[in-house]
C-alpha cells in the first residue's frame, strides 16, 4: 500500500519541524569523537525522509548521502539542497537491501524508523546492507528503538500541531498491539492539514515488529559484523540507566 503521508513531503516536514537538528548533530559529533575508530568525512542518513539532520551535516562540511524509498521525500530533499547551495547525494532504495557506490564513515537512522524493518530476517538483511556501506570502525546510530513496550503510556495517542507559512498541520500518532506472539503492532499516523484554507487529511497504517532490547543485541551477535556499544540517552552521550522510548543505540562496524 502506498503511503499517503510520505507522498506529501512538505506537510510531513512541517509536522516534524520541532526537531532541533543542530543539537542532534552536536550529539552525533560527541558520539563520533568518543566511539568512532574512523575519521568521519562522509555520512549516510537511512530512511532519511526530509533529512533535517543530513542537511545540517552537509552544512558542516560532511559528504552527505540520503537514502529513502520515497521519491517525494527525496525530491523535496534535492530541492532544499539546491536552494541551500548544499551537496547532498540521494539514493532511492529500500533500507533492507541496498548498496552504495562508496563506503561512508558514519550512518544513522532517526525517529524510530528502524521499526519499519518488519521481521528479524529483514533486520539481518538491513544490518548486512549497512555493514556493506560502512567503513570498518565506523558507527551506526539508531534513534528511538521501541524499548519502552512495558509502559501503557507507550500505547497512548500523541498529538501535536505545527504551523508554517499559513499551513497548519495537526499530527496524531498511535501504536496498538496486534499480535503479541510475533511482537507485531499497528502504527497509525494521521495528518490533518489546513493549507491556507484548503483542508485535507492523510492517514497511514502499518503493521510493524518491535525488536526487544536483548533480542536486538542477540541479532547484532548473529549478524556478526558489528560491535554492540550500548543504549544511550537521546539528549546526551550517556549510557541509558532506565528504560525510555527516547534513546539512541550505537553499534560499530568491525
What does this structure look like?
With 254 residues, the chain is an alpha/beta fold. It has two domains: 9-146 and 211-253, 3-Layer(aba) Sandwich (Rossmann fold); 152-209, N-terminal domain of TfIIb (Single Sheet), CATH 2.20.25. It has helices spanning 9-15, 21-35, 52-59, 71-84, 120-133, 213-223, and strands at 42-46, 63-68, 88-92, 104-109, 134-143, 158-164, 167-179, 184-195, 198-209, 226-233, 247-253. The chain starts with 8 loop residues before the first helix and ends with a strand. The model has no long low-confidence stretch (mean pLDDT 94).
Domain module tally = 2
Corresponding CATH superfamily of the largest domain? Vaccinia Virus protein VP39
Low-confidence stretches: none
Number of helices in the DSSP assignment: 6
CA gyration radius, whole angstroms? 18 Å
Physical arrangement of strands within the biggest beta sheet: 3-2-1-4-5-11-10
- Kindly report the average pLDDT value: 94
Strand content: 35-45%
Most strands sheet: 7 strands, mixed
Q: What shape does the CA trace take?
A: globular
CATH architecture of the largest domain: 3-Layer(aba) Sandwich
Order of helical and strand elements = HHEHEHEEHEEEEEHEE
CATH topology of the largest domain: Rossmann fold
Distance between the termini: 37 Å
CATH class of the largest domain: Alpha Beta
Q: Portion of residues in helices?
A: 25-40%
Number of strands: 11
Class from secondary-structure proportions: alpha/beta
Amino acid at each position: 500500500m502506498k503511503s499517503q503521508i510520505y507522498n506529501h513531503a512538505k506537510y510531513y516536514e512541517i509536522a516534524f519541524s520541532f526537531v532541533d537538528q543542530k543539537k542532534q548533530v552536536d550529539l552525533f559529533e560527541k558520539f563520533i569523537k568518543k566511539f568512532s575508530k574512523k575519521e568521519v568525512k562522509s555520512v549516510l542518513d537511512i530512511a532519511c525522509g526530509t533529512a533535517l539532520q543530513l542537511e545540517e551535516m552537509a552544512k558542516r562540511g560532511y559528504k552527505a548521502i540520503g537514502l529513502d524509498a520515497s521519491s517525494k521525500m527525496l525530491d523535496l530533499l534535492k530541492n532544499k539542497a539546491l536552494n541551500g547551495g548544499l551537496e547532498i547525494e540521494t539514493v532511492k532504495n529500500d533500507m533492507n537491501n541496498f548498496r552504495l557506490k562508496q563506503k561512508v564513515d558514519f550512518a544513522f537512522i532517526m525517529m524510530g524508523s528502524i521499526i519499519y524493518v518488519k521481521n528479524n530476517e529483514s533486520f539481518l538483511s538491513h544490518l548486512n546492507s549497512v555493514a556493506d556501506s560502512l567503513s570498518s570502525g565506523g558507527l551506526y546510530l539508531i534513534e528511538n528503538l521501541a524499548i519502552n513496550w512495558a509502559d501503557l503510556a507507550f500505547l497512548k495517542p500523541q498529538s501535536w500541531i505545527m504551523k508554517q507559512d499559513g499551513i497548519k498541520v495537526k499530527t496524531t500518532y498511535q501504536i496498538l498491539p496486534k499480535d503479541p506472539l510475533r511482537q507485531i503492532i499497528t502504527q497509525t499516523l494521521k495528518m490533518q492539514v489546513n493549507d491556507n484554507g484548503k483542508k485535507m487529511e492523510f492517514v497511514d497504517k502499518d503493521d510493524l515488529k518491535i525488536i526487544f532490547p536483548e533480542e536486538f543485541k542477540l541479532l547484532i551477535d548473529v549478524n556478526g559484523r558489528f560491535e554492540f556499544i550500548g543504549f544511550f540517552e537521546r539528549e546526551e552521550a550517556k549510557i541509558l540507566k532506565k528504560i525510555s522510548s527516547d534513546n539512541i543505540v550505537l553499534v560499530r562496524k568491525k
